[in-house]
Protein 1
Amino acid sequence: MNLPLEGIKIIDFTGVQAGPACTQLLAWFGADVIKVERPGVGDITRNQLRDIPDADALYFTMLNSNKRSLTLDTKTPEGKEILEKLIRESDVFVENFGPGAVDRMGFPWEHIKELNPKIIFASVKGFSEGHHYEDLKVYENVAQCAGGAASTTGFWDGPPTVSAAALGDSNSGMHLAIGILTALIGRQKTGKGQKVAVSMQDCVLNLCRVKLRDQQRLDRLGYLEEYPQYPIRADGKYGTFSDVVPRGGNAGGGGQPGWVLKCKGWETDSNAYIYFTIQSNAWAPICKALNKPEWTDDPAYNTPAARQDKLFDIFAVIEVWLKDKTKFEAVDILRKFDIPCSPVLTMKEIANDPSLRASGTITEVPHKKRGSYLTVGSPIKFSDMTPEIKSSPLLGEHTDEVLADLGYNQKQIAELHEIKAV
Ligand SMILES: CC(C)(COP(=O)(O)OP(=O)(O)OC[C@H]1O[C@@H](n2cnc3c(N)ncnc32)[C@H](O)[C@@H]1OP(=O)(O)O)[C@@H](O)C(=O)NCCC(=O)NCCS
């Protein structure tokens, strides 16, 4: 299949999750992604949280599919020369090292663009250039704290909480991928490459945009009507407002109140829950589904404003209705009434979900050492192509092949191995 990014060559000098998630996406869509790794060591995730001795960890295999692996010590003169050659003939150079590491290696942007004015140099850092924290190294949870996610996630009576979703890592990688594709289109017009930079803090914040909305509303009004803290209760049962956006538990944002509700079996199954949304225009069907016809036209219930101070009482009534229904049975009933809801799915349920398997969102990939493993395929679906998710490379699997493409002969390649430059 002819994939849109075929012909685009990417130097993938990334590690852990943020950078690899970006380049993996581009590899799925046809780019030739050459992962550059330190000889004998490789991306640190190859060894992290291993479940099979001597085989690349899932952490690595699930973030590096469809790539080639080149081992290269860029601190040796020979390694630098190879990287320079690669830069001269590549379209994109992606890195997510700690602040200043690429400069110390001898490859600041100024030098990279001298070597190849058409190249796009894409970079992930924890904080943006010039930020008072720009020197900090950053991992996922650090970014979630810096980007406003942690202070606004969790319950009002608990500590700031990080999300299991990789808002700092993979999300930054997705932002970077958009930046790279934009710069590639820009290059078609100008003939010039450019530097594309994202910071994990900014990318988390971009997803917390509505919380900055809420800060401004809170500053003006002193309350936020869709939060469980509203209306303000004397007993403070659901917390109170201060001058900062509070943690809203599982409240639905955007004026469509919702909550995670217990279903049959919740006493022993910690995921026997559904998310139920009281969509304002679906009040009549909700009353019908719950067999509460008396609520439909009752002015004490039939507008969002009237329901506001009774939301938790309504949720309690719904939980009584849910008592004899599993999360799946409940959703099968509620879907007929057009109510936005979902079972709270576990990773085990997701892994075995026939629809996710059929769409390729959960896909099984063969691996030379591991046997086959599950991964998350492309969440982006196209009408004219279905990206094939292939295995991640073994460490240095394509070193000789890439060097030969760069013009090195067998003898030179053997020498480079001998001196451990590759
Ligand atoms: C993720 C992070 C915290 C890891 O930090 P770290 O393990 O200390 O590693 P660094 O990225 O700082 O790099 C370590 C060194 O390895 C060197 N190195 C890496 N690959 C190399 C290679 N192939 N050849 C030679 N040297 C190499 C780097 O040049 C750097 O050397 P220096 O610091 O002595 O100059 C850090 O890279 C970071 O903050 N990155 C930016 C934000 C980010 O992407 N975070 C991770 C999200 S998943």
Protein 2
Amino acid sequence: MHELSVAQALVEQVRNLADENGATAVAGIRLRIGPLSGVVPELLETAFPLAAAGTVAASAQLHITPAALRVRCETCGAESEATPNRLLCAACGDWHTRVVCGDELLLERVELDIPEPPNPRTPEPPTPDPRPPTPDP
Ligand SMILES: [Zn+2]
């Protein structure tokens, strides 16, 4: 299952982010997936909990935004929306088009649970001196 390795790579990326930010958990993950990315959003949603199990991302909510597929025509230069099986220019109908966007798999946003830093105004409790008193010479 291709989506499982995608999910594992995603979890890895999110874990690094959580580590860097001192997060204790990941609340949500927002992804943008284009129709030409080769990733089926439904399968990724199924694979994600398997990849995230036992990690900081285990309880994260996965939100997937489907990205639009756009092509630029190499004949007339117009940019238009297209469908994966019909990459035609909407302006002139030419098939000499280049995909502008629609093949992306983007990690748009990660919501992290970061514990509150300790209040700096709270004085530290006095630490008892662990050393035994030095005897007088
Ligand atoms: Zn065109």
